[in-house]
Amino acid sequence: QVQLVESGGGLVQAGGSRRLSCAASGRTSSIHTMGWFRRGPGKEREFVASISWSGSRTYYGDSVKGRFTISRDNAKNTVYLQMNSLKPEDTAVYYCAAASTSTRSYDYWGQGTQVTVSS
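and the corresponding structure tokens:
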């Protein structure tokens, strides 16, 4: 089992920045990929970004490319999401997720952290 805890959410003005953190614990050796997803009010869950746990491969959703950066610190078992140039449409609950090496699917999810961008 892998446990994920997000932090860093809050209220930010449009154009501002925020950094989210996701601390992983438990069987972190079983993690293949870490990802960030979000669900805005009245919207479907959306892929934001992902990063391989052992390498440096990253992927981004189209709506955040060029504004968000995902990174990791394996020594701290933590993944970060640096969000710049925030827009009101970035308002959402942001979830951290981990895909295991065995299934390659996101089997583990955090509880989510709210990010609200005011205009």
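(Above: one complete record from the training split.) The chain has a mean pLDDT of 96.
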